[in-house]
Write a structure and sequence with these properties.
alpha+beta; 17% helix; 3 helices; two-stranded antiparallel sheet
C-alpha cells in the first residue's frame, strides 16, 4: 500500500496544538483536490469538500460511499440514497464520492461503519478533530 507522509504542521503551545491550515489545503498539506462532480458534491456544490462559517456540518470529508455507510446514514435519519429531483440530487450509490460532515464521519467511525476517505480531497481542518493516523487507516485504496 502506498504510504503518504502527512505534512500538516502542528505547533505546540502548552498542551493544546494549533493547526496551521490554509484555505484549500488537504490533510496531506497539499492543494485540495476535487472530490466529485458526478453527482456534484460539496457545501458550495462545486465538487470540493470545503466549508465556511455558514456550514455548521463542516462538509470537509471526501469519502467513497459504501452500501454499509449509506444504510447507516439512512438509519440515522440522513437519506442519501433516494433522489430529490427538486434539488437536482440523484441519490447516491456505493462508489460515489461525496463530501460528508466531519462529525457524521466521526460518528460513523465510532460506530465502526465509516466509509473510506480520499485524503487528497479532504480539507486540512479535519485534522483538528480526527488524527492523521485514523484518517490514514481509512484511506481509499484507489487514491
Amino acid at each position: 500500500m502506498k504510504r503518504f507522509i502527512f505534512e500538516y504542521r502542528v505547533i505546540q503551545q502548552g498542551m493544546s496544538p494549533v493547526f496551521s491550515c490554509t484555505m484549500l489545503t488537504n490533510v496531506l498539506g497539499e492543494p485540495l483536490q476535487e472530490c466529485g462532480c458526478n453527482p456534484m458534491t460539496g457545501w458550495f456544490v462545486d465538487g470540493f469538500c470545503r466549508s465556511d462559517k455558514s456550514d455548521f456540518g463542516q462538509h470537509i470529508m471526501c469519502c467513497v460511499m459504501t452500501e454499509t455507510y449509506l444504510k447507516y446514514s439512512f438509519a440515522q435519519g440522513n437519506n442519501l440514497i433516494d433522489p430529490i429531483p427538486e434539488l437536482d440530487f440523484p441519490g447516491l450509490i456505493a462508489g460515489n464520492h461525496w463530501c460528508l460532515c466531519l462529525t457524521r464521519w466521526q460518528q460513523a467511525w465510532q460506530d465502526g461503519v465509516a466509509p473510506p476517505v480520499i485524503l487528497e480531497s479532504t480539507d486540512c481542518s479535519a485534522l483538528q478533530i480526527i488524527s492523521a493516523d485514523i484518517l490514514y487507516s481509512y484511506q481509499d485504496s484507489a487514491s
